[in-house]
Amino acid sequence: MKIEAGRCREALWVPSPNFGARPCADISLLVIHNISLPPGQFGGGYVQRFFQNELSIDQHPYFAEIAELQVSSHFLIERTGTLVQFVNMNDRAWHAGLSSFAGRDNCNDYSIGIELEGTDDIPYTDAQYKVLADLTKAVQCQYPAITMDRITGHEHIAPGRKTDPGPAFDWLRYRADIG
After folding, report:
1. Which listed residue (10, 78, 115, 155) is catalytic?
2. Are 74 and 86 in contact (CB under 8 A)?
3. What is the pLDDT of residue 134?
């Protein structure tokens, strides 16, 4: 994969309005998440519409609960392995919320967020692991402060509040894949 000026050439560009300028220049953390909309269902393009503030509350009762939220991530890796980018990596996506890593708060300020289409308890696909590993290596080349010990899950930076990517995520496999 190739990253140029904060954009991954291999990713489908679906811009989100939910981002801001980073208050600091150091991009030094990678956060792995999961998402499915409606919960436990895959496909349908609902995650993309959610990150673009275009989710219709008429399509599912759950959507009325989250329609007013303004969130985003830098990337989504769908079950098929399709890679979607919402926010330039040089900008701050709104994926981590109230968070802290290694004693430093506000992880959105200095992190890149990658969403996997999935749930805490359904295994992720081989295609997702492959794309995630390739993307991680490209990100690490572009942002060398993101070392192996600065790759984490949402559950680790927001304990008690978030549980993703959950027990279904194979950290050993992922770390072996990125070497």
Report:
1. 115
2. yes
3. 98
